Automatic annotation (TrEMBL):
SUPFAM superfamilies: beta-lactamase/transpeptidase-like (SSF56601). Residues 353-437 form the DUF7586 domain. Residues 20-336 form the Beta-lactamase-related domain. This is Beta-lactamase family protein. InterPro entries: AmpC-like, Beta-lactam-related, Beta-lactam/transpept-like, DUF7586. The lineage of its organism: Bacteria, Bacillati, Actinomycetota, Actinomycetes, Kitasatosporales.
């Protein structure tokens, strides 16, 4: 029987083609190539071109601009996981003399270091990196545009600093470290710092006439970690699969998940656009996307992953402007997810039942609020309010017999079992909150104690 990931319905395929054809025609782009992946398998590819018979395919390179930043962030997270640095470290500890040494690595990754958005003139994306041979040439007087940590302010020079940090710690060029530690292990053989045939040429389209102007494709030098890379839809879908689940050869699932969390406090109200650690985070039509968009003169790129739907879309064009590239990629995900919703995996019982953990499941009360504790196949626990209102979280097991919160109010908090001298369970402790089997159970160690007279009526 054919897997549901192996094919799309004809109506879905036509809707995808219609969306990219419309984007190429209305956006007046010389060429556009797109691909969609579901459940780890490529399920659709499409391309349009202004030259008959010369449409790009999944192995044609386009420049991906700021999608490069996600690759750079992965390298930094690898250094952290190896214990070579801490994200809270000031940059000066590992890369002295930049003039921006007080900012932290975490702030640089999440664009909250307060650095300028761009280098000083001339426009770095359209000029050779040889014009900026040192970090001082990149940063100049724009080192402190905002107080570090106070606000999100996108900074291309910030990722130059991160690339130089990787070079300083590894003792090799950013390009070599990237190739060795990310591109080769993930099989991204068509992703490179310089274009490799077949590749698209970059074009500017006149805003008021159907006329073209070639764009230069410069080697960005020190700015390369912010936007240098060339890639293909096939390679970017492989990279997206890594971003969805992690890969221990490159970066484990927990660290990739960390990259997907907002790096600074969102603005008041429910956030729509945010930034993690090298990843853009977007909420749109009830769906959360992780990934990145990119642009350099002559090229636009977008990669979006909806982890809830397990659908990824990549769109690449060779035009400086004209297409809302992020919207097109998100639309492709929406088309598949809405026309063909994800089919759940079959439910399966636990392979083995841990009697002690099973005994913990069921009702627990925080003061008078009932909560349900459930057990999952990976020994993880989930605590949710009975009425759906209030604080809840998933927890993963630690080797020491405790659990740590994965999300919500209790993210990072420790859940532990507190036992009586005879080994029976007295209560659950969650970040100092006591959960008991009965509301204010007098037999449990409730902070402040429980009135000896117990529960009473109004006239008692």
């Amino acid at each position: 029987m054919t897997s549901p990931a192996e094919q799309l319905l004809p109506g879905t395929r036509r809707a995808l083609l219609h969306r990219v054809a419309t984007a190429q025609a209305e956006g007046r782009t010389p060429s556009l190539v797109a691909a969609v992946q579901r459940q780890g398998q490529v399920v659709w590819e499409g391309a349009r071109s202004c030259v008959d018979g010369h449409a790009p395919d999944s192995e044609t390179q386009f420049r991906i601009g700021s999608l490069t930043k996600t690759f750079t962030a992965v390298l930094v997270m690898r250094l952290r996981d190896e214990g070579l640095l801490d994200l809270a470290d000031p940059l000066e500890k590992h890369l002295p003399g930049t003039g921006a040494g007080d900012v932290t690595i975490h702030q640089l990754l999440g664009h909250s270091a307060g650095l300028g958005a761009e280098t000083t003139a001339p426009w770095w994306e359209r000029t050779p990196g040889s014009l900026r041979p040192t970090l001082a040439d990149v940063l100049d007087e724009q080192v402190a545009m905002h107080p570090p940590g106070n606000r999100h302010h996108y900074s291309n020079p910030g990722y130059t600093l991160l690339g130089s940090l990787v070079e300083a710690v590894r003792g090799a060029s950013w390009e070599e470290v990237l190739r060795r530690e990310v591109l080769e292990p993930l099989g991204l053989h068509r992703t490179s710092s310089l274009p490799q045939a077949p590749h698209a040429g970059g074009w500017a389209v006149h805003p008021w006439a159907d006329a073209l102007l070639p764009e230069p494709a410069e080697d960005l030098g020190l700015m390369a970690p912010a936007g240098q890379l060339w890639s293909t839809t096939a390679d970017l879908l492989r990279f997206a699969a890594f971003l969805a689940e992690g890969d221990d050869r490159v970066l484990g699932a927990a660290s990739v998940e960390e990259m997907k969390q907002p790096s600074a406090a969102p603005a008041p109200g429910e956030w729509v656009d945010h930034y993690g650690l090298g990843l853009q985070l977007v909420r749109r039509k009830g769906r959360t996307f992780i990934g990145h968009t990119g642009s350099l003169p002559g090229f636009l790129a977008a990669l979006w992953v909806s982890t809830e739907d397990d659908v990824t879309a990549v769109v690449l064009v060779n035009a400086t402007s004209g297409v809302a590239i992020g919207e097109v990629a998100a639309d492709l995900v929406d088309i598949v997810a809405e026309a063909e919703p994800r089919i759940p995996e079959p439910w399966r019982p636990l392979p083995e039942v841990d009697a002690e953990l099973l005994a913990l499941t069921g009702l627990w009360y925080w003061a008078t609020r009932p909560n349900i504790l459930t057990l999952h196949a990976d020994r993880g626990l989930e605590l949710r309010p009975v009425n759906g209102q209030g604080r809840g979280a998933r927890f993963t097991a630690r080797p020491d017999g405790t659990w740590v919160g994965l999300d919500g109010y209790y993210a990072g908090e420790t859940l532990r079992i507190v036992r009586n001298p005879d080994g029976s369970v007295n209560h659950l402790d969650l970040g100092s909150f006591v959960f008991t089997r009965e509301p204010y159970d007098p037999a449990a160690a409730v902070p402040g104690g429980v009135d000896e007279a117990g529960w009473r009526g109004l006239g008692d």
